[in-house]
Amino acid sequence: MNYSKNIVDFVNNAENKLTNQFKEIDKIALYNQSKVLDAFRQEQVALRHFSQTNGYGYDDIGRDTLCKIFAKTFGAESAIVSPLIVSGTHALTLALQGILRPGDEMLAISGAPYDTLMKVINGEGIGSLKDFNISYKQVELVNGKFDFNKIKESISNKTKMVFMGRSRGYEWRDALSIDQIEEVTTFVKNINKDIVVMCDNCYGEFMDYKEPTEVGVDLMAGSLIKNPGGGIAPTGGYIAGKEIYVNQVGYRLTAPSIGMEVGSYAYGYKDFYQGFFLAPHVVANAVKGSTLFGQVFCDLGFDTCPAPSAKCNDIIRSIKFDTEDQLIKFCRAIQEISPIDSNLTLYPWDMPGYDNQVIMAAGTFVAGASIELSADSPIKEPYIAYMQGGLTYEHVKLALMYCLQKLKLL
Asked: Which of 166, 192, 284, 381 could serve as 204's disulfide partner, Cβ 3.0–4.6 Å?
């Protein structure tokens, strides 16, 4: 690829500014790799755990051990890890429907949940929480911080669950830090210890030394084609947390009479084990790439979130463009510099679950996997691209130089 010397020098100069950030990212990756390795060794993972199963899946040692490894790594009492969970939205929906009952109230304390959850909560006639007489309230963040006074005012005798989203979705704010999650969880539990505190952990796994379930959160959920799948898992999702709540979610995933006693998988579990083992390193690559994108675009005068000098609390990098044309060209460039489907020309489309047309670059080995380098955006002002992922730092760096070239920024 014939990148101009100006582009190469500019990116290398930006990279040189990030030595301290990269050292901290490497420390977090090493710590999390140790956690994952310890879990594998404690559970004595062997080739037999990778075997395919069929039928009901009674005594499926591969499935059961995989769940134990996730639970141990995330400091949780129990976990469900399953290829039968089709997405992060599905995992979150299972958790909500597994815990909440008619007459209960769900209180979201970090603003609105991710777009695809809103119909799960308030849809009409589709089996939503609202259809089952489960009420919903939300408290907005104030300058990216929890509004503790408003949270306290909003908690009522009906409040069964307090819900927060670690990542920011299509919002211009930093993702929630582990310290923020711990502080608000303690605050809620001091008001009512019986409230179930739940966290949407999508895009947040292995970003820090601890996970939400290690700082008091009762239940969290995420997707295996994001961080914890390591770019290897072909599908699936997980729920982790207190055993009493995970069991309830298991009854929703299968049936109240059988829970997690069944569930076979005819293709085997190797990719899920291997992906989880690789995940701390892959996440570190994605974070380094995100940080480099942030530094370069900031140096070019663009607004980015988080700031290049700030700690990343999820793998998403937001970049604010001046025009719709710039935004579309950026996403097209990400697609063109991908290993898969690089020949495609992207156009905005009416994507299910979203109010605006969305453009989505995802030239990925696993379709739509956002731990792989990808970018997407709703087509609306302000024109913000949400870039995430990257299996290797080198790919992300090459993609950055390609974007600069295609947008003629240098």
From this structure: 166
The per-residue pLDDT for range 78-105, each reduced to its tens digit, is 999 999 999 999 999 999 999 999 999 9
Those residues whose C-beta lies under 8 Å from the C-beta of residue 102, and which sit 6 or more positions away, are 132, 133, 134
Query: What end-to-end distance do the CA atoms of the chain give, in Å?
Result: 16
CB of 201 closer than 8 Å to CB of 211: yes
> Tens of pLDDT along 142-187?
999 999 999 999 999 999 999 999 998 788 999 999 999 999 999 9
Do 293 and 300 contact (CB within 8 A), yes or no? no
Find the helix or strand (DSSP H, E) in which 240 lies. strand 237-241
222 forms bridges with which residues in the sheet? 238
Bridge partners for 221 per DSSP: 200, 239
The reply to whether the predicted model has a pTM over 0.70 is: yes
- Residues 240 and 242: their CA atoms lie apart, in Å, by 7
Buried b (16+ CB within 10 A) or exposed e, 146-172: bbeeebeebbeeebbbbbbbbbbbbbe
Neighbouring C-beta atoms of residue 124, cutoff 10 Å = 8
How many angstroms separate the CA atoms of 114 and 95, rounded? 15
